[in-house]
Amino acid sequence: MSLLRLKHEDSRRIVVLVLLVCGISALGSLISLNLALTIFLVLALSGIFLLIAHYQRASEEDRIQQSQDIQDLQFIQSTLDLRRPLPYFTRWSSSPALAAQLIGVIKVYQPRCVLELGSGVSTVVVAMALRDQGSGQITSVDHDPVYAEKTRKELAAQDLLSWSTVHDAPLVQTQTPRGTVPYYDMAMLDELGPIDLLIVDAPPRHSCEDARLPAFELLKERLAPGALVVLDDTVREDESASVAAWLSAARDNASRIVPCRKGVTIVRMP
Ligand SMILES: C[S@@+](CC[C@H](N)C(=O)[O-])C[C@H]1O[C@@H](n2cnc3c(N)ncnc32)[C@H](O)[C@@H]1O
Known about the structure:
Blueprint: H1 8-29, H2 33-79, H3 96-109, E1 113-117, H4 121-133, E2 137-142, H5 145-157, E3 164-168, E4 171-176, E5 179-184, E6 195-200, H6 213-219, E7 223-232, H7 240-249, E8 255-258, E9 264-268
Parallel strand pairs: 1-2, 1-6, 2-3, 6-7
Antiparallel strand pairs: 4-5, 7-9, 8-9
Helix pairs in contact: 1-2, 2-3, 3-4, 6-7
């Protein structure tokens, strides 16, 4: 139920609201107790009204999101040759929207070399789409050995190891044009040819400020002409620098923002 799924910012807003109501009522009590009570009731009722309106809107957005998820899942199911169930989509994984967009991009552009930053369900979906079209390889890197291994096991269970490789790639201090930041050790990608499709779904935002911007700074030169770049989580404030950088380098009028919950942005390079 939406009401119980308070985000950190929601809880902060509620605390600020309660403190404000109490503070203003306390000020009113300096004049008269009745005035304080009236102020308290008016502010508290307005606050409750605003909260109800907020959660009604959130629940309407949830409903729309669920119907989009169903459409995307139907597309995934009808497009891929599924021989076992896919791993579950979770809060940490790619969304059905991202998976559906990746399948669409692979069908249309038939990339041969796919590099993914952040392994998981998306690695399995992409490997399956490449297998179904009969060409291509996905290389995925993950800073967390636990999730890298989990993805490798799932790829093995799905018999997709000949279409995919997952590398353990700890975040190491890396030189970028903005200074040194923790990023994947790129040495392991030296053997990789020009990248036709780059999927940017990591590192997690807590690793540093603008955590995904180094993909642009360090990998742009390794893209094949006309390469596609698929960025996840692009509705997030902390992704804005990365999205702006990719959009500014993209081919004119060849980028697409998919209006889904987490935001997916697809960029076509010149
Ligand atoms: C956004 S996730 C990448 C998701 C991936 N593309 C997928 O489709 O599942 C970014 C990183 O979070 C880490 N991760 C994945 N699941 C996690 C979980 N349940 N808890 C904490 N970290 C997780 C992994 O190391 C992954 O590289």
